[in-house]
Amino acid sequence: MTGLSIMLVDDHPVVREGYRRLLERNPGFHVVCEAETAADAYRLYREHDPDLVVMDLSLPGAGGLEAVRHIRQWDKAARILVFTMHEGAAFALKAFEAGAAGYVTKSSAPQELVRAVEVVGGGGRALSDDVAQEIAAERLSGRRSPLDDLGPRETEILRMLASGLAAEQIAEQLHLSLKTVQNYHYQIKSKLEARTDAHLVWLAVGFGLVRMTGGEVGR
Which Pfam families match (predicted)? Predict the structure, then answer.
């Protein structure tokens, strides 16, 4: 097979089908595998060795940040384009810190995703206009997000905690010891100066890591 081989990572089958159709309308783009979870993404990447990964960040359990970090640990040359609903500058910067080469929001025009696939697939870096403007505005204003003090794994654990996962569940999904997760939990609270776990959830919502849906926290 010639052209660009692509893995899609999103937990909604209908959404993946839409992306597949959009991308495969372009000559040379071939979707070779699809994953619903971070664990599936890592396993299928090793099996299929795609040229490019199109990765959502909102996945069940361990999220896209962890998937990006894990894949890049195994393959330093992996090319990963994040395609997500998260429009905040802080989240985009965390994705790049984890190893992504591109970041496009789902509110972007379809052709912006296609263009980003071409750029990242060719070895470049891509950023959708809305997020580029967010990052520029933040930098020009001199504002600094508290998330800047957290690494990608700490950010992911904060998201998982705020989503209602217990420390035991996080340890199992990230293949860490319970003590390690508890240490991360303490470090995150300390860095963010959070007084309680409820305060942590409130901060995570404010950062855009999780959403409030019907009065409850959701992905």
Answer: GerE, Response_reg
DSSP code string of 19-59: HHHHHHTSTTEEEEEEESSHHHHHHHHHHH--SEEEE-S--
User: Domain 146-218, what architecture?
Assistant: Orthogonal Bundle (1.10)
Structural contact between residues 11 and 60, judged by C-beta atoms closer than 8 angstroms: yes
Which tens digits make up the pLDDT trace of 76-92?
Answer: 999 999 998 877 777 78
CATH 3.40.50.2300, the chain: domain bounds: 4-140
Q: CB–CB of 92/146 below 8 Å? A: no
Q: Do 88 and 95 meet the contact criterion of CB atoms below 8 Å apart?
A: no
Structure tokens of 14? 């209908």
Outline which parts of the chain fall under CATH 1.10.10.10.
146-218
Residue linked to tokens 């933040």: 138
Task: Please state, as a whole number, how many other Cβ atoms lie within 10 Å of the Cβ of residue 11.
Answer: 18
With DSSP H G I counted as helix, E B as strand and the rest as coil, what are the percentages for the chain, rounded to 5? Answer: 55, 15, 30
- Reported as type and span, the H/E element at residue 165 is none
Topology of domain 4-140 in CATH is Rossmann fold (3.40.50)
Paired with 211 in beta bridges are: 218
Question: What are the phi and psi torsion angles at 91 (to 5°)?
Answer: -65, -40
